[in-house]
Write a structure and sequence with these properties.
4-stranded antiparallel sheet; 421 residues; alpha+beta; binds zinc ion; 40% strand; 2 domains; Methylamine Dehydrogenase, Chain H; single chain
């Protein structure tokens, strides 16, 4: 019964693949996985090895490089494995599990003391071979841009200038739906609404450090760093606001039914000692005490406020997807309004220039002093971030997308074309 054995082997391979993804991202095991493990010593042993490796990798060891010859061996072995995978199994080719192929090699190498510190092996860089499939979120990271893609593998790319220097697949049970990212020190936090999680990503080297479960469509993130370290706050589209990794501190500002992923958009921003929170379904801005998360104010601004950005001087800009840019005072009240074309849902602000993106195909520049509005057609702009040198980075989704950096006059400084992987 060769056919039976093959099926069993295939099933175990699938199980072990899921175990690797879940252990790697710190997720709990599903009942199906547990059931299989109970009756399969092979997969159970695999899980034990994964956990031992994981524990070793999480130890606080100083970063070090593995010996050069070992790195070469591992790289060439992985390359061979990938080639075999592509020629033998079309199914595996459709969704190549880079991490899957690396784990066994890592386990072999784990015997070499010190190698465990080489966390980058867990999340191998693909260097120049990397593409930018369907970019959705762009974040200014330490020394470059981190780009998260809404592809099947949840691909993350690190760019230095217009060069992709590292790439990894964050995995996930569902194709990723990245909604926002923020930087806090040397970490970047990425909201993945499809997989109900926020990823904590390190960029030196590029790796997923931790995955926080955040149910109900996580849409907005904001970060603060103070004397007692940093905090990241999230807002879900169904109305929860909370601190990442702190389940005790969470409140619900509204209760809503589920909705399509494309509608998972809302903003949260720490400004002037208050958390500003949009709830686009009711047209409200809520103000919360960041310590207690108690609601201290609620302002109906109308429309569908979805994103927020701070301004010098303590005011806050709120983007209304119904077609307005709003300036709010410290109490959340509207003190100025600019009409905008289309249905923009992402906002970036540098000094007196704001850029907003509308997925339907437009970037709009707003001069916050003169009030001048300048549109620029772009195929599928998904996100915009203001960079510290006064320029802006825009993530353009879809097949012809990529990442574009523009100056404050909308002149393109450079563009890195995307593509399929
Ligand atoms: Zn098994």
């Amino acid at each position: 019964m060769a056919g039976m054995n093959e099926n069993d082997a295939q099933h175990c391979e699938m199980v072990q693949q899921q175990l690797e993804e879940r252990v790697g991202l710190g997720q709990s095991l599903t009942p199906e996985l547990r059931a299989h493990l109970a009756g399969c010593p092979g997969c159970h042993a695999h899980l034990t090895l994964l956990r031992e490796l994981e524990a070793a990798l999480l130890e606080d060891v100083p970063p070090m490089q593995p010996p050069a010859h070992l790195k070469t061996q591992v790289l060439s072995a992985a390359r061979q494995t990938r080639i075999q995978t592509q020629t033998v199994a079309p199914a595996a080719q459709a969704r190549p599990h880079a991490a899957r192929r690396w784990w066994p090699l890592m386990l072999g190498a784990a015997a070499v003391s010190g190698l465990l510190a080489f966390g980058a092996l867990l999340t191998p860089s693909r260097g120049t071979a990397a593409a930018l499939p369907d970019p959705a979120v762009v974040v200014a990271a330490a020394g470059g841009l981190l780009v998260a893609s809404n592809d099947g593998g949840g691909t993350l790319n690190l760019l230095r200038g217009d060069q992709v220097t590292a790439s990894l697949r964050s995995g996930g049970a569902q194709p990723a739906w990245f909604t926002q990212g923020v930087r806090l020190g040397d970490r970047v936090y990425l909201a993945d609404a499809a997989n109900d999680r926020v990823l904590e990503v390190g960029t030196g080297p590029l790796r997923v450090v931790r995955s926080y479960p955040v149910p109900d469509g996580v849409a907005g993130l904001t970060a603060s760093s103070d004397a007692d370290g940093g905090r990241v706050y999230f807002k879900t589209v169904r109305g929860s606001v909370g601190r990442l990794g702190d389940p005790q501190h969470q409140i619900t500002v509204a209760r809503e039914d589920g909705m399509p992923l494309a509608d998972v958009m809302d903003g949260v921003l720490l400004s002037g000692g208050r958390l500003f929170v949009t709830h686009h379904l009711t047209g409200e801005i809520c103000l919360l005490d960041p310590e207690t998360l108690n609601v201290v104010g609620r302002v109906v601004v109308g429309g569908a406020p979805v994103d927020l950005a701070p301004e010098a001087g303590g005011t806050v800009l709120a983007l209304d997807a119904a077609g307005r840019l709003l300036r709010l005072n410290a109490g959340g009240e509207v003190i100025r309004s600019w009409p905008l074309p289309g249905h923009p849902d992402k906002l970036g602000v540098n000094g007196s220039v704001a850029l907003v993106t509308d997925r339907a195909g437009q970037l709009t520049r707003i001069d916050l002093v003169s009030g001048e509005i300048q549109p620029m057609p772009l195929t599928h702009p998904m996100d915009v971030v203001a960079l510290s040198d006064g320029t802006f980075a825009v993530a353009e989704g879809g097949g012809g997308g990529g990442v574009r950096v523009l100056d404050e006059t909308l002149k393109t400084s450079w563009k890195r074309q995307g593509g399929k992987r």
